[in-house]
TrEMBL record:
The keyword Transferase applies. It comes from Micromonospora olivasterospora. This is Aspartate/methionine/tyrosine aminotransferase. One of its GO terms (biological process) is amino acid metabolic process. Keywords: Aminotransferase, Pyridoxal phosphate, Transferase.
Length: 481
């Protein structure tokens, strides 16, 4: 008999439905585990496809959506879906009503139902008005966003605004140091492409990229595609999974072909952030290499700088930007995707510490993006004004992240008491949208999903051991009951 949806199911019927979902979960986990023996598939794709298969199977069997939602929790994806935010901490409509964020950030459509809150659409319309004003302003300055952008790095007004933002962290930069990109991933690819091209102009190979692990793995494929070799350094739990100056010095001595160091200042997946003294020590290693006649470029990924305590973020950024003598070999990749929950907008930029280096990198932008989309730039300008005029919005986003991280740790501790899953549930540096934990011997992402219904990403995705797992708080709220 086919089970039909009924939102008024009695409690015992919902319990039966949840048992059916668990049975499906167990069967599909066993099926996908068997696939590991016969074919190679990247771990992140394997887990993502498994979650999709579970949700599809439950839908095809017409199982209760509430039962499915309670028994299959996708914590693989880092992106934040503001439309799914359901938390309301305090009075409805008050400052702790996080459901309003989609409306307050102009993501929600006018009249859209957001988990019981109906969006006004005021910011949605305001952003479009601001795009009109931004276009008029650009035209008055002789900059037409509707024609070909010869340099391809974006209009000088927006780049000047972003330079102002970076100067607040101690960087001595102007619009000429900034190049816009369609997301942080696009920016990193352009930087690697550009540095490789500069090496070829000197009749030198691109060299190699040094990647601390665990780390964001997209850079690996980008580096390989742009002709770099790859070298990794496995960080240690006792160092909070951060690259130490001693490790960096040893890796550079052992691998003289390394030309680029990729560093996530606030780490995905480990959730730990570099402290000012740690960054100064790393810069000291690069300085010593320079004194020896070797230039190692630093590509600093700032994607999660802004998710933590503002004063701590400022301290680490001021340390990173303090080495004026290394400015011509440092690039900073920034994005509004995670810090501002605007993953679909693809707003990002690169700040080059040296204007001459920025100028020599333009060819990478011309040969990839060709010209930045005019409408996208206007949208970017409108959002920049929104956050300049309403800084409390970022406080609210950070508060939501902090609440979700704390709730996820509490949930994992409770599940560990029930199933004995974890050897260590790590705390974080009050940053990012993840939890990074170590599993007990014999456990892996498949067994965690089978027992709890929570899908995470195995450590091998980030160049580390599968005894570790990353869970995201981004896509879904954390339900403790």
């Amino acid at each position: 008999m086919v089970l039909q949806r009924d939102m008024a199911r009695p409690e015992n019927d919902l319990a039966e439905q949840r048992l059916l979902v668990r049975q499906i979960r167990r069967e599909l986990v066993q099926e996908y585990r068997a696939r590991l023996e016969t074919c190679y598939e990247p771990p992140i794709r394997m887990m993502a496809s498994l979650v999709q298969a579970l949700e599809r199977e439950c839908a095809e069997r017409h199982l209760d959506e509430t039962a499915t939602r309670l028994e299959i929790v996708n914590r693989t994806i880092g992106d934040v879906n503001l439309r799914l935010v359901s938390e309301c901490d305090g009075a409805e409509g008050g400052p702790g009503d996080y459901r309003r964020l989609a409306d307050e950030l102009g993501v929600a459509l006018p009249g859209e139902n957001l988990q019981g809150y109906v969006a006004t659409g005021a910011v949605y319309h305001w952003l479009r008005d601001q795009m009109l004003e931004a276009e008029r302003d650009l035209m008055d300055r002789g900059c037409d966003p509707r024609v070909y952008d010869i340099a391809s790095v974006g209009n000088p007004v927006l780049r000047g605004w972003l330079a102002d933002d970076m100067r607040q962290w101690g960087l001595t930069v102007g619009a000429e140091h900034i190049a816009l990109g369609l997301g942080a991933t696009d920016c990193m690819d352009k930087v690697l492409r550009g540095l490789g091209a500069l090496a070829r102009l000197r009749s030198e190979p691109a060299g190699a990229v040094l990647l601390p692990t665990p780390g964001f793995n997209m850079v690996e494929s980008q580096a390989a595609a742009n002709g770099y070799q790859l070298h990794s350094v496995e960080t240690r739990p006792e160092d909070s999974f951060k690259l130490t100056a001693e490790q960096l010095a040893a890796a550079l001595d052992e691998n003289p072909e390394v030309s680029v160091l990729y560093l996530t200042v606030t780490s995905n997946p480990s959730t730990f952030a570099y402290q000012p003294d740690e960054l100064l020590d790393l810069l000291g290693v690069l300085r010593l290499q320079r004194q020896r006649g070797r230039t190692v470029y630093l590509m600093a990924d700032l994607a999660y700088v802004g998710t933590g305590v503002p004063a701590e973020d400022e301290a680490r950024m001021r340390a990173l930007s303090s080495a004026a003598d290394l400015a011509d070999q440092v690039s900073y990749v920034s994005s509004l995707s995670k810090t501002h929950t605007l993953t679909g907008e693809r707003f990002a930029w690169v700040t080059f510490g040296d204007a001459d280096l920025a100028g020599r990198m333009v060819g990478s932008w011309i040969n990839s993006t060709v010209s930045m989309p005019g409408e996208w730039q206007l949208r970017f300008m409108a959002y920049h004004r929104l956050f300049r005029e309403n800084p409390q919005l970022l406080d609210k986003v950070r508060s939501l992240y902090g609440m979700r991280r704390a709730r996820l740790r509490a949930q994992l501790r409770r599940l560990d008491e029930q199933y004995q899953l974890f050897e260590h549930i790590y705390l974080d540096d009050d940053t990012t949208i993840y939890n990074w934990s170590k599993l007990r011997e014999g456990e892996d992402c498949f067994s965690v999903l089978e027992k709890t219904g929570i899908a995470g990403i195995p450590g091998s995705t980030f160049g580390y051991s599968d005894q570790y797992v990353r869970f995201s708080v981004g896509i879904l709220p954390v339900v403790l009951n």
